[in-house]
Design a protein that fits this description.
heterodimer, A: 114 residues, seven-stranded mixed beta sheet, globular, B: mainly beta
């Protein structure tokens, strides 16, 4: 059981380039989330989805877009990368309901923007 | 976003020590959670608290949900080297969103 898989694990971009981070979960979870982690700031929610075809803004959505065309995948896009987007990005999912507190996280994607 | 104040920011542990960390909020929450993150991994849930005053254990870890519902603490008893990592408190919002504290980094004292 793979759980939550993020690709790529590492990426270096130049300012202005675009890229997409992919999150895939094989647990049939309804809810999916993208967080970023920066030193001393914990994890901050970027965007999330409550089901296939839905997306919503989190705490720090600016500069990012997301899509959830299939239930198992949640894509995070950067249209024009900026150095301030250098961070470690984590995807998480949960079934909702009784199991909702147990967010299952991926291993993270480290992005550096030069 | 919700501001959770987590302290201390970092701590050094010596094997066998008991250590404690806490988390406070200016708002009331009905669910408090504690996660641990090891290097190169995502956070993993340690303990979930659902009731004010609740004291819950998971092995050598004990967490309490404050009676005011505005705070929580986590104790680690008899520390071992594998306790190193970053510990996060978190609270739950609608749509099962979690808001995290800044984390407490636990390192082994040389």
């Amino acid at each position: 059981n793979a759980g939550v898989t993020q690709t790529p694990k590492f990426r270096v971009l130049k300012t202005g380039q675009s890229m997409t981070l992919l999150c895939a979960q094989d647990m049939n979870h309804e809810y999916m989330y993208w967080y970023r982690q920066d030193p001393g700031m914990g994890l901050r929610l970027i965007h999330y989805s409550v089901g296939e075809g839905t997306t919503a803004k989190g705490e720090v959505p600016d500069g990012y877009n997301v899509s959830r065309l299939k239930k198992q995948n949640f894509l995070l896009g950067l249209e024009s990368a900026a150095p301030s987007q250098t961070s470690v990005y984590f995807c998480a999912s949960t079934p909702g309901g009784a199991g909702a507190n147990v967010l299952t996280f991926g291993a993270g994607s480290r992005l550096t923007v030069l | 976003g919700q501001q959770l104040n987590q302290s201390p920011q970092s701590m050094f542990i010596q094997e066998g020590e008991d250590v404690s960390m806490n988390c406070t909020s200016s708002s009331i929450f009905n669910t408090w959670l504690w996660y641990k993150q090891e290097p190169g991994e995502g956070p993993v849930l340690l303990i979930a608290l659902y009731k004010a005053g609740e004291l819950t254990s998971n092995g050598r870890l004990t967490a309490q949900f404050g009676i005011t519902r505005k705070d929580s603490f986590l104790n680690i008893s008899a520390s071992i080297p594998s306790d190193v990592g970053i510990y996060f408190c978190a609270v739950r919002f609608e749509d099962y969103k979690l808001s995290f504290g800044a984390g407490t980094t636990v390192t082994v004292r040389a």
